[in-house]
């Protein structure tokens, strides 16, 4: 998959890395709200099913629910792809929620 910044005329790889760094910093500041939005995508699954889906322990799932730990970046990326939601919505709640 090409870099999301590939359309930039100057140094697309540098721009893409900068964007990713900014997203990660934002994520560190707001992870409890991000956890809530992430978990809302999987409301139909039990904690045990979530643990199996993401190959983590029940303790990890509990920590995501309580906000003691942040959902790992790769799990967020999986949710964006599998649930067809936008990064904007997942990271800060901005509409639209779903990609077209």
CATH topology annotation: 434 Repressor (Amino-terminal Domain)
Which overall shape is indicated by the principal axes computed on the Cα atoms?
globular
Strand content: under 5%
CATH class: Mainly Alpha
The rounded Rg comes to 15 Å
Tell me the number of structural domains. 1
DSSP helical segment count: 6
Low-pLDDT stretches:
1-10
Order of helices and strands: HHHHHH
Query: What's the count of strands?
Result: 0
Q: What is the terminal separation in angstroms? A: 18 Å
Helix content: 55-70%
Largest sheet: none
Which structural category do the helix and sheet elements fall into? mainly alpha
CATH architecture: Orthogonal Bundle
Mean pLDDT rating: 84
CATH superfamily: lambda repressor-like DNA-binding domains
Describe the protein's topology.
Layout: H1 12-29, H2 31-40, H3 47-54, H4 58-66, H5 73-83, H6 87-92
Helix pairs in contact: 3-4
Q: Top keywords for this entry?
A:
100 residues; mainly alpha; 434 Repressor (Amino-terminal Domain)
Overview of this structure, please?
By secondary structure, this protein is mainly α. It has a single domain, classed as Orthogonal Bundle (434 Repressor (Amino-terminal Domain)). The chain has 6 helices and no strands. The protein has helices at 12-29, 31-40, 47-54, 58-66, 73-83, 87-92. The two termini are 18 Å apart. The model is unreliable at 1-10 (pLDDT under 50).
